[in-house]
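Annex B. Sample input.
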Amino acid sequence: MKLRILAIGVVNLLLLAGVAQGQTTTGFPQLPPVPQTGQLPANPAATNFTFIVAGDNRPASKTATQPKTLSRVLADAQRFNPAFFLWCGDTISGHTADGPTLKQQYGAFISIASAAKVPVFNAPGNHEMDLVTKNGNTTIETPSAQLLAFYLQYMYPPNSPSSAYGAFNFGNSRFIAMNTEEVAPSDLVRSPGRVVASGLKLDPGYVSPEQINLLTQDLAANKDKAHIFVFMHHPIKPNKAPAGLNVATANQLQQLFQNYANVSFVFAAHEHLYYNANTNTLTPPKWQSGSAPVYLITGGAGAPLDKCGTNTGYCGAYYHYLVVNVDGDTINVQVVALPEKLKKSKAKK
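Annex B, continued. Sample output.
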């Protein structure tokens, strides 16, 4: 009996500790930072801070050698004194279930990510989560439970939740990382998905009802936050429609986010470019209390660049990252392009 009482007491202390740090007891589990990038200090009173958003640094070929652009992004961003980085996936070339290969690839990314000097939080992409297989004459990409296990092994600390989504608090804001690469039921009808130049048919992404249920709980439990930032890999509002998240899921999430006045920005990657779906200008609109969610794609951290499509909004095919400044109820976003790539690119409206 004494042992049971002691065990209950320990659990209660852990729960109280989580609440004391501003963590909700419903919704998404606590999101750990990328290993070797440090821990985020508790700072519940912060109302003015800066963070960086980027994604899609993965190598062009199946190698562990990261593109130099990744290091350049991390180094250049130091001048803004960020509190942390949000990363929108495709950290490795992946697309394999070979354990030693993945260990080497994740190790190379983690080693470079440590140069951020602050915690880096990642939402996984298709290269971390999907296998490439042959189906007749077609090469297809398919989310894999095996690759999820490898991702959790190398990118999460021991005894972490068995999901690749999570959330954390900083200052007056909540940050939610979604996994848009879950394993879908085999009989589920989804969007066709994009076919890239190599002939590979990309998966259109999938978000399970379980994840959406937890997301709904999380949003409801954090109405008191000034801002909620969501980051993911597959975009809800893509530059090129076939590159977007499965249409039915994207519509469901967009409607859900509209129900919460504090959902401020939704960041994604997958397309290797910068895309502002909200206006035809480079700089996205300033977010103020009462504004609608702003959707941005930031996939320019080192992967081979895409070409802009003809969709409305502003598109720029160059290497870049985003600087997000939270100032009370107001948010400003700056797009920082790496200079030599900006000169060679052609932005399309």
